[in-house]
Amino acid sequence: MAIATINPATGETLKTYEPLSEAALEDKLARAAAAFAEYRLTTPRQRAGWLRAAADVLEGDTDAVAELMTTEMGKTLASAKAEAGKCVKALRYYAEHGEDFLQPKPTDAEAVGAIEAYVVHQPLGVVLAIMPWNFPLWQAMRFAAPALMAGNVGLLKHASNVPQTALYMEELFRKAGFPADVFQTLLIGSGTVERVIRDDRVVAATLTGSGPAGQSVAAVAGDALKKTVLELGGSDPFIVMPSADLDKAAEVAVTARCQNNGQSCIAAKRFFVHTDVAEEFTRLFAEKMAALTVGDPMDDGTKVGPLATEDGREDVERYVQDAVDKGATVVVGGRRVDRPGWFYEPTLVSGVTPEMAMHSEEVFGPVAALYTVADLDEAIRIANDHVYGLGANLWSEDQGERLRFIRDVQSGMAFVNGMVTSYPELPFGGVKQSGYGRELTEVGMYEFANAKTVWIGPPGRQQGEGDTAAAASE
């Protein structure tokens, strides 16, 4: 794929970039390593100050960077502004809490025969972030804010269709006063990623993307014995039980499915509705989906913009056609919009069965798959019968159902009476083929930190026989 800005609302190529030459890439890697040698010695308070400054810069740039994201990948302007605001919040969160997260963690010194024992979290080094286009600022910031707060240096290999947003990220941290080369964007193709991961100056990698991309990165990093964090998508279940507020559940269901034009890893994609309320919920869901305004993402009244790429729209069309060919019913939508750009109608498909591709694969577009279930046990069973386990939603006022859902659903996140979303204050990530590791809060910051054990004995004390024997047995 060419490194280029192509407006999804028109199909027009606006700007193209040449990939970095080998010499230019080598220069950036060398500068990143040199930057880490100095940056690791800065204090958490200094880093917090730079993060706070970055938040102020981004807040001032919100309108411009939102227009840039909308132009590059088609999200509505309102959602792009909200995304920028979310990044501002994350920067301020780590600026406010990062110093506390990085304080030494005391342990029971007496139990280990020391006068002092603690754990200190130290930065690993240069970390490569391989990011997708669907939340071009937020997903990169989920990595950048905690990694920089921890004292690491970042290299961003962004998706090839959002190069200007990627370059803005580098500019943002430069304008905020971070030391030179602490965060750099690499305009490279996917074929160059392995070379960067294998470079001795790069110590770890994080990727948000597809399963095959995750397998490739994990294999290369594993061969080089380097740490990885992977977030590889999902097909989140959205379960509706009889005690739910059906109108509210349907309203949130539409947002949960069509957020970001349906292109979100944590979008609800499979809807499991109890048979007692299936007819009413389907009616409400269909009405609200049909009421969404599809159009120019720059317009204030638009709720759903284009898909980010032409190939993406073709994939969505194939999933819907496959389901129809195998007996499913299109309740609402099901067609591309007759206008320039890569638009597709918000779509509700009922009667989905295991033979259909959308049952077992992730549909990355505004298409909801609807199932009718006899009870919560059936909903959870079908929900878990999937390779992904990112997030999950339950709508119920029954405490027993809530507890069973939290206990039994196989996911990294479980939301009750609300849609799955991400917050700086909560860990973010999945299980199964949705990946491993966590982003956000202190958990995400520690992913790229060395939890170093420190043991300090009393002056002149020698470890006793018990200590020596225990050490020898390890």
TrEMBL record:
In terms of SUPFAM superfamilies, this protein maps to: ALDH-like
> Its Gene Ontology molecular function terms?
aldehyde dehydrogenase [NAD(P)+] activity; succinate-semialdehyde dehydrogenase (NAD+) activity
Q: What positions belong to coiled-coil segments?
A: none
Highest taxon listed in the record's lineage: Bacteria
**What sequence ranges are listed for the domain Aldehyde dehydrogenase?**
3-454
| Keyword field | NADP, Oxidoreductase
Q: Which family does it belong to?
A: Belongs to the aldehyde dehydrogenase family.
Name listed for the protein in its UniProt record: Succinate-semialdehyde dehydrogenase / glutarate-semialdehyde dehydrogenase
Q: Which organism is it from?
A: Geodermatophilus sabuli
